[in-house]
Design goal:
Layout (H helix, E strand, L loop, with lengths): L4 H7 L1 H9 L5 H21 L2 H16 L6 E5 L5 H8 L3 E5 L3 H10 L6 E3 L13 E7 L8 H10 L1 E12 L7 E8 L2 E7 L5 E2 L1 H7 L9 E2 L2 H10 L3 E6 L7 H5 L7 H4 L3 E7 L4
Parallel strand pairs: 1-2, 1-4, 2-3, 4-5
Antiparallel strand pairs: 5-11, 6-7, 8-9, 10-11
Helix pairs in contact: 3-6, 7-9
Length: about 280
């Protein structure tokens, strides 16, 4: 309370939220519970944004992985199953993993049970010879994990030598804890970013930034954190990419609302890496 109290509350936002909500441990379990609660709303949200699926996520996959026919692919954090379905339709042998039971049921129904497996990460453990994949896809999920280094290390351990890791995430330059539009006039706006360096729970998502205002948990990190974690586990970075208008020129050429932030900025960042042969 008192002078600069609001500034301090923003700087301490993650700590205060974790203590208040009992989130000092059990992040993965609570994240799964929140996605269970949000699952149906998320499915409706994605169904109403097919251009995003087609012209950002799928087109990125086409350009980065090329022909996936015959490849064994792990869809890590597969959510409601759009990527698994797309990969299967293009000839890949897909294993789907997600920590939300409700998401797994949606994916199973959507893909008619045709995938190689629907499972938890624990289901891939425990064998003398671990199941390995030609590629791992982690589409819009690494910002939902608390232990980035440990998760990337686990994903790397699931790759064959030479296998590739495809990742997309919320662009950290445009999804920090404090962000939003500031209107300059009826025809122009400026996107304002604050607290980019604050690493931790993204309170925008926690307090209603998820689909239909159903709260989910994700972690804000800097771009350098993702790159450093990737290189620390020994993967070789092949490309970093962001979506742009060439994939959907008619839509990008249309008049935009002042606050249409999906097109005035790049909210998705992606990278492709591979596991070296030796």
């Amino acid at each position: 309370m008192g002078i600069l109290a609001s500034n301090l509350r923003e700087d301490m936002a993650e700590y205060l939220y974790r203590v208040g909500e009992g989130l000092t441990s059990g992040f993965l379990q609570q994240s799964g519970q929140r996605w269970d609660h949000a699952a149906q709303s998320w499915e409706q949200h994605r169904a109403g944004n097919r251009w995003t699926e087609e012209f950002i996520y799928r087109q990125s996959l086409r350009e980065q992985l090329g022909d996936v026919s015959g490849l064994r692919i792990l869809d890590f954090g597969g959510g409601s199953g759009e990527f698994s379905e797309f990969l299967h339709e293009n000839g890949a042998i897909v294993t789907y993993v997600d920590h939300s039971a409700q998401m797994r049921e949606i994916a199973r129904h959507k893909t008619n049970g045709v995938l190689e497996a629907y499972c938890l990460t624990e289901d891939l453990e425990g064998s003398a010879r671990p199941q390995l994949f030609d590629a791992v896809v982690a589409n819009m999920v690494l910002h939902d994990v608390e232990d980035l280094g440990g998760t990337l290390g686990w994903l790397s351990s699931r790759l064959e030598m030479g296998g590739r890791l495809f990742v997309t995430i919320l662009h950290p330059c445009f999804k920090p804890p404090v962000h939003g539009w500031s209107s300059l006039s009826e025809s122009s706006a400026r996107y304002m970013i604050d607290r980019y360096g604050n690493i931790g729970l993204n309170l925008t998502a926690v307090f209603g930034g998820g689909p239909s205002s159903i709260p989910t948990l994700n972690i804000h990190r800097r771009l350098s954190d993702y790159m450093a974690a990737l290189l620390a586990i020994g993967l070789v970075l092949d490309s970093v990419f962001e979506p742009d208008g060439r994939w959907h020129p008619e839509y990008f050429a249309s008049p935009l609302a002042v606050a249409d932030d999906w097109f005035r900025r790049a909210p998705v960042l992606g990278f492709l890496a591979h596991k070296p042969q030796c």
